[in-house]
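notes to self, project folder thing:

trying the whole complex as one job this time. last attempt i did each chain seperately and stitching them together was a nightmare. two parts in total, labels are on each line so i dont mix them up again. if this works i'll redo the older ones the same way
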Amino acid sequence: MIFFHSTRNELIKIALKPRSYLGLAAITGLVGIILFALMADGMSMISFVTASFEQTLRFEGKVLNGNLVAFIILQMLIVHIPLLVALVTGDLISGEAAMGTLRMLMTKPITRTQLLMSKFLAGGIYTFLIVLWLGFMAVGIGRFLFGPGDLMVLNSDGLVILQEGDIIWRYMGAFCVAFLALLTISSLSICLSCFSDNSIGPIVSTMAIILLFTIIGTLDVPVFDTIRPLLFTTHMAAWRSFFEDPIPWQQIKESIGILVAHNVLFIGVSVLTFHRKDITV
Amino acid sequence: MKYWLLLCFPFFASAQQADELFARLTQKFKQVHHYEVVAQIKPNIPLIKILPVKANVQFTYPNTYKIKSAGISILPKNGFSELPLLFSQPNQFTAIASGNEVIQGVRAEIITLLPRANEGDLVLAKIWVDTQSMLILKSLITSRSNGTILSEFEYTSEKAWGLPARMKFTIDVKKFKIPKGVATDINRTSRQVDDGNSTKKGSIEVIFGKYRVNS
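result (full assembly):
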């Protein structure tokens, strides 16, 4: 019971921090700009992608529709969302340590593990709300403004055109995997937060790790071939696999496995570190 | 002089024969002023994955096509409207007989159509004609903007109007290129090797049904 009270308190603390709304505001603003740009000149962007095909073929039907708009938004924003998540979750322990409230909190009848887990759960709920808001803005508003239609996805193997009735469940699957990927960021930032006594350190460190791993993942150099599949950043784009035909289920399962393993690792390291942490201030 | 005329005689005869055949085809084509048909479009193109799509096709003489599909459908850029264009402007082309060939068990006469003006988009058209039923069995159309497209035709109930029950377009896929920056696949953990044996031809099959002609 005390665990749920603690989680509720953590959620209240997140809700009272102005920076928690920064993520939601940033998503709203960014999606608004992308929607405006696509409404104004979306077809020219699409023709850039399909130009090579349109020399010989012509596409009939509504290519620029809500489903495509949502996909473009996700592809553009999913890279930036980790920063918005880390901005809040990276502060959950180190922020309290910096303010001195962590020492007071530990005087309550709650174990360190329970307190830490309640922070992880609160961070997870915040991450879920971010993903939900992104989904509403991208798919909900996108479909409202542009209408439904078949989804044309370009990947390295070519064009995949998915029929309208076959799309919504793919988005739901994609958002679940995207949530798991962002949860990994949340876990990483909370883990780093256990090592620090200031707010900025874990946030910047999280972003630095994401940047480093992403660069290693995208460098087409054979020396990184063995470690690339083990990096969580490689699997953060696994949501995209839901828009392939046929869906590479094995690849998705592997990505989910790697992301869950990272979450377990980060939570484990956090529990060990937090247990040994000397809370002096 | 008379020997030269004798040598050229087969050519004049074949040109006259081809012109006659082309004129007869044009007459047949003019019978159809308008039609509506339900089409099922089945693309089979190596770099594109798409399920068959149903569409409603409307044709109005001479070469106006309106295609309405519930979702996204793919059609060749060239091939649908170019053939009617040939028959709607017969004076702008020179017909040359180019031999014969057996297609679908039918002996077809080959006519090559050359544009009289140089500045047009259409460079060359070759059509295979079943002279018994005056039907086009195959066409090969080359244009400046879209390259060459091979079309094959099959007929059933609307044979009398010269309207096909099935059309198959063969297109060249070599020109397709995926923009690299747009299609970065972060999940990819191995490099793709082009073995040089990848398919270079694609096809689009269109099956027509429920024709409503001139109504």
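what i see at first glance: The mean pLDDT of chain A is 90.
need to look closer tmrw
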